[in-house]
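How it folds
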Amino acid sequence: MATNYAVAPGEFLQEWIEEEGRGITQSDLAERLGVSRKHVNQILGGKASISPELALRLEHVTGIPCRAWLAYEALYQEDRARIQEENSLSNHLSCVSSELASFLRRQGASKATLRDPQRVLIDFLDFTGFGSCGAFVEYSSKAMQCPSYAALRESGAYVDEALVAAWIAAGEKTETCQKSSDLHFDRQKLLDLLPHIKRRAKTSDSTMIDDISAMLETAGVIYQFVEPPKKFPLHGITRWLKNGVPIIQQTGRRKKDAYVIWTLFHELGHLLYDEEAATHIDCGSKPVAQQSLEEKRANGFAREMLFGDDLSPYRGITRSHQIKAIAEQHGHIVSVVVLELHRKRWLNYSWCNDLITDLDIPFASPAKP
């Protein structure tokens, strides 16, 4: 059981001096050990550690085995480190929210509640793979400087950095992501798959997302939905894992097929045409003037792929059966056409929503231990 105090090996040595040393002084002990009196005094005061060499000498002098002295030293250092960590945790309890505690419990990563915020914080570090709160804060500070995170902050959304890190970590612990070492991103393969993905997306049924995920996996792209925490500001994130495999991770908050399909092709545009392997966050639409060059390019790619960036055949059309007929004629995905017509205000937002389908989002399963 962990303690809130640390016992230095010097206390055991002091106990030996008093009970079994037969009047031996610190000077006598120093002479027998072949070290200075100051060194012995520092050991007794817990200011100097016991090395393997000194532990062996102590065995000869005291009769207490070398391994016992080393065990005392190891336990002392462990307890000291644990106490220091607890002090550090106490300074970072503001990172802990009820949403974070709830999300970690749902992931099976913690059993703690806000009644024990320190335990929640420890479980968070274990789950996300950070060695200390300081390491997480430093990482988060750097991450928040990237353009996508900056845009998220500018959007006015409240950003719980620990919650974002936990959701990202959950994505790395899915069965699909755990197999990423077997994947290799193939850009040409992805380009070749695009018409097949578009064709599959025309039918919004219960297996559409799984089928598209399987296709993308053959090109070395992970496409998955990870159930988000409550009060989560993100719709998704696209990034590159350390092994060079891209991952498109969505929350499924927008369960409409039009949003899912549009977002997918937008993110594929980032993977194919961004000059750098950057992280992109989907936190909702922004005015065109506020979009980066990469965002505008990804939007242009999605439009070109989905309807040739030409919606002129739909101008003035307001009935569902008309839009559906034109979409079938041109090979367009009808729900995405309606979404774009709404965005362009060519179609009243309350019209033709019967062409947009609700999806049953297949959330990724955590990998088995």
Summary: The beta strands are 222-225, 236-240, 246-250, 280-282. The chain has three domains: 9-90, 93-169, 179-355. Residues 66-90 form the longest helix (25 residues). The radius of gyration is 30 Å.
